[in-house]
Design brief:
This protein is mainly alpha-helical. Helices cover 67% and strands 0% of the residues.
């Protein structure tokens, strides 16, 4: 799916070069379920924080970066057809979640506009993708160095705004503190920078030709950076704050992407791309009512949500063959 970083028609089948990307995307989609179910809360607050605000912060960046990596192939027909297709997918899933919108949110012009432009719950990713791809299309002919520094500068601005919110604001004093997320978790500071990274990896092929030990050392350093930043966040800020734009994720995600991209992995008879889309897009349909109706703890909620999500995934795939809810 373009919106989940799929390469679409770029690879008609899962081959040795992209099998790692596809499998990683499925694993990360399942990790989204764990994050939303607060699975590691069963271990402790620290484990929950380190998973949800550490490892989980590379999930959406990985999806975006993958889309950027295949940007030029997806844009062969121009920007408008791509925006039309992904825009329709976004509107379709917004309609699917309409009962949840009416149940969980006040029906006011402000709330309707905010939800439409920035997305409900996990759907925020799609508007960030749409705007980010449009901006990348405008800036695609910049020199690679200029494009990188533009992306990095915008990401740093968003990250600084996020840390300023955590440092200066009493988020508990806000009636709807998550409304502040639209200031940073959007196409400008989040979507475009990771999409641009993907395009630059495609063009420049960093780490290609480096010995395996060097690549492994860079990957390990990225994970250490992520762990260190997450530790400081846990110690210095309210753990209920905002930690989407972590600088370490901007470093680690491209290194991880390159590592899994180059795995000589073939998945015979199994293409996880569409399944990963279904898991990502559909799981809150079951998670939210299960949480409301059962009051289950994090582990039980995780098991139930994963079970229902995977059980009903074939039904969504069947629907997707008839209606434009997946590419």
């Amino acid at each position: 799916m373009a919106s989940l970083g799929t390469h679409g028609n770029a690879a008609a089948s899962t081959g040795a070069r992209y099998g790692g990307i596809d499998l990683a995307r499925l694993v990360l989609a399942l990790c989204v379920v764990l994050a939303h179910c607060a699975t590691f809360q069963a271990v402790g607050d620290w484990a929950h924080f380190f998973f949800n605000n550490g490892l989980a912060r590379i999930i959406v960046p990985f999806f975006l970066l993958t889309t950027g990596y295949f940007f030029e192939r997806q844009m062969r027909a121009g920007l408008a057809p791509w925006l039309w297709r992904v825009g329709h997918i976004y509107l379709a899933w917004t309609l699917i979640y309409l009962p949840f919108l009416l149940f969980y949110q006040a029906v006011t012009p402000y709330r309707i506009a905010l939800t439409l432009f920035f997305g409900f719950f996990h759907l925020w990713y799609l508007p960030a993708l749409l705007g980010g791809m449009a901006l990348l299309y405008v800036m695609r002919n910049l020199r690679d160095g200029v494009l990188f520094w533009a992306a990095f500068a915008l990401f740093l601005v968003g990250s600084a705004l996020q840390y300023a919110e955590n440092l200066l604001l009493d988020l508990n004093a806000f009636d709807s503190p998550y409304d502040l997320l639209v200031l940073t978790r959007n196409f400008l500071f989040y979507g475009f920078p990771y999409l641009a990274l993907g395009l630059l990896i495609r063009r420049r092929e960093p780490l290609v030709g480096q010995p395996a030990l060097v690549r492994l050392a860079v990957l390990a350093a990225g994970f250490l950076f992520l762990g260190g930043e997450c530790f400081l966040e846990f110690r210095l800020f309210d753990p209920n704050g905002f930690f989407d734009l972590t600088v370490s994720a901007f470093v680690l995600t491209p290194v991880l992407f390159i590592a899994v991209r180059d795995l000589p992995l073939v998945l015979p008879g199994f293409d996880p791309r569409k399944l990963s889309m279904v898991v990502y897009l559909s799981h809150p349909l079951y998670l939210l009512p299960l949480r409301e109706l059962t009051g289950a703890g994090p582990l039980a909620l995780t098991v139930m949500t994963l079970a229902v999500t995977l059980l009903l995934a074939p039904a969504w795939l069947w629907v997707a063959r008839r209606l434009p809810i997946l590419p």
